[in-house]
Design a protein that fits this description.
Blueprint: H1 2-7, H2 14-20, H3 38-51, H4 55-64, H5 66-69
Helix pairs in contact: 3-4
Length: about 70
């Protein structure tokens, strides 16, 4: 982060941007979380991962959250 602040005009750390937005998309899926995107939003996110070459990550999330999608 120190190097970024010396070499970049944008000194906002991307990590903190993600945290201000509510954290990583899949982390917001916990039951009872008011920011949860819903099954439709999660399915769209999986489709996006697959369309952008991240099939392995999509499959991992699909397996980890099968109970959320109702496929377990």
């Amino acid at each position: 982060m120190q190097k970024m602040s010396r070499t970049s005009s944008d000194v906002v750390d991307p990590f903190w941007t993600v945290m201000k937005e509510g954290g990583p998309f899949h982390a917001r899926l916990s039951p009872g979380n008011p920011g949860a995107p819903g099954v439709e939003g999660f399915s769209q996110y999986l489709a996006h991962l697959e369309a952008t070459g991240s099939e392995t990550q999509a499959e991992t999330l699909r397996n980890n959250y099968a109970h959320y999608l109702g496929t377990a």
